[in-house]
Specification:
CATH topology: Rossmann fold
Order of helices and strands: HHEHEHEEHEEHEE
Number of strands: 8
Strand content: 25-35%
CATH architecture: 3-Layer(aba) Sandwich
Number of domains: 1
Length: 220
C-alpha cells in the first residue's frame, strides 16, 4: 500500500501506535553509532527524528542537537523519552516542521537522517539536507535499500507492519552518492547491508539498508 507520507499520515501513524500502546524499543541505530561515534562533537541536525532515539543518543554524546519532525505526536513522545532516560535530560531543540519546506538558520557539523520518508522524491530530499552541512562537516544518510524485492514479513523501520517501504522511498548507495557533487564531497562510507531485527510482534525480519557517510570539503 502506497502512502503520501504527509503530515496527516504521520500524525495518524503515531497517534494510532500510542492508542494501542505500541512503541518500538528505544535503541539507537547501530549505523549512527558506528559512523559518528568517533567524530568530534559539534552541532547536529536529526532530520525526521521520529521518537528521538538517535537525537537523544547524539545529545548524550555531547552534540548540540536540533531534531526536526513533521509530527507533533512523535516529538512529544521523543521529549518524554528524553526526560525518562535522563535525570537531567540533555538539551535538545525539538522542532515541528515539514523538511520539504523548512530551512535552518545555520549549517551543522553533522546532518543525519534515518529512514525518513518525505513527500518529495527520496533523492531530492537527501540532496536538500546535504546543503545544510557546514564545510568540514559530515552527512550521514541511513535509508531503505532498493533491492528490487522485499523479504516476506518486512516491516518499516518506524514500526509500521502494514506497509513495507514503497519503491519510491528506497534508494541505492550509488544513487545517494550520485547526488553529491564530487568536487564538494569526500565519500567515506557507501554500504548496502542486510540485518535482522525483532519488531513489535517479536518476529525477526530482514531489513535492507543503505548507509552513506560523506564529508563536505572545506573551502580552499
Amino acid at each position: 500500500m502506497e502512502h503520501s507520507f504527509d503530515k496527516d499520515y504521520w500524525e495518524t501513524h503515531w497517534q494510532e501506535r500510542a492508542a494501542h500502546g505500541v512503541g518500538r524499543e528505544m535503541s539507537v541505530n547501530d549505523h549512527l553509532v558506528r559512523e559518528v561515534g568517533k567524530l568530534d562533537t559539534g552541532t547536529a541536525l536529526d532530520a525526521g527524528c521520529g521518537e528521538g532515539a538517535e537525537a537523544i543518543w547524539l545529545a548524550g554524546a555531547g552534540w548540540q542537537v536540533t531534531a526536526v519532525d513533521i509530527s507533533n505526536e512523535a516529538l512529544q513522545r521523543a521529549s518524554l523519552q528524553a526526560s525518562s532516560q535522563y535525570t537531567n535530560p540533555p538539551e535538545i531543540n525539538w522542532v515541528e516542521a515539514d523538511l520539504d519546506v523548512w530551512t535552518p538558520d545555520d549549517q551543522f557539523d553533522l546532518v543525519t537522517t534515518h529512514y525518513a520518508h518525505p513527500t518529495t522524491p527520496q533523492l531530492e530530499f537527501y540532496e536538500r539536507i546535504a546543503g545544510w552541512v557546514a564545510p568540514g562537516g559530515t552527512l550521514l544518510i541511513v535509508g531503505h535499500l532498493h533491492t528490487g524485492h522485499h523479504h516476506h514479513g518486512d516491516a518499516d523501520e518506524k514500526g509500521d507492519h502494514d506497509a513495507r517501504p514503497p519503491e519510491k522511498a528506497t534508494v541505492s548507495a550509488a544513487a545517494v552518492t550520485g547526488v553529491l557533487d564530487p568536487t564538494e564531497w569526500d565519500i567515506v562510507t557507501a554500504d548496502e547491508l542486510t540485518r535482522t531485527v525483532n519488531v513489535n510482534s517479536g518476529s525477526p525480519v530482514q531489513l535492507d539498508d543503505v548507509v552513506v557517510r560523506a564529508t563536505r570539503r572545506r573551502s580552499a
